[in-house]
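2024-03-11 09:14:02 DEBUG pipeline.ingest accepted 1 chain
2024-03-11 09:14:02 DEBUG pipeline.ingest length=272
2024-03-11 09:14:03 DEBUG pipeline.predict start
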Amino acid sequence: MKLKRRNIYLEFIIGIVAIYLSVLILLFIFQRSLMYHPLENNYSGDKLKVEVEKVNIVTSDNLNLLGWFHKKDLNKFKTIVYFHGNAGTLENRIHKLNHFKDMDVNFLIIAWRGFSGNKGKPSEKGLYIDANSAIKWLKKLGLNERDIILYGESLGTGVATEIAQSNNYAGLVLETPFTSMIQAAKNFYPYIPVSLLLKDKYDNQKKIKNINIPVLVMHGEVDQIVPFWMGKKIYEIANQPKYSYFTKYDDHMMEYDEKLLFALKTFVKSLN
């Protein structure tokens, strides 16, 4: 009887381990489907109130990326390069872009590979290629890095910090940044060894220490996706000059209200 119970207990443990290992294998295989959500649509009905030109940006690995380019005055004003987050299309950012028309800036926003109808599959390496290709496209218009402000939103902060390490850009804006994708994933999967499984690590916490250009960090305390402490940590370890815009009530998609816009406009003006 004791031997039978022992065998049942052993079979139970083996079953639990087998299930856990199966979950790990599935997470490893499909992790990028969990990280990138090109078909998610959180916003609809916003109409573009700023004039943009739809442009095609060819990457160094021969993918065509959709971009929206607003040219106010390339010689007089800085140009924001906007790197969006892990979900949705360019249309999902219209509510933000509409406010740029009241600022003394040009802007270029690109859709990542696999997003907004673009071919290809998103990955950390791929998004870095996309971002550098956008910068190269602007340089062909006569701009240099000192004319460019990098703006990262959520996942896009991981791309912006990577690119900003050259320290040649005018400034860096980080909206709802995370410390690293490993730490962000641990927040959702505390019982999974994400540090061993994760392919795309986006280590903002490490890279921000290498950046010596002006930085503006924006984050809301009730963010349910990227914990507020992560944005605060990024700000704390960032080098000077650095600025922050922290709010008590903003969730992950920050409210583009008068206070945020004032902070953003003030930062941009300081770079001219």
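2024-03-11 09:14:41 DEBUG pipeline.report The first strand starts at residue 53 and ends at 58.
2024-03-11 09:14:41 DEBUG pipeline.predict end
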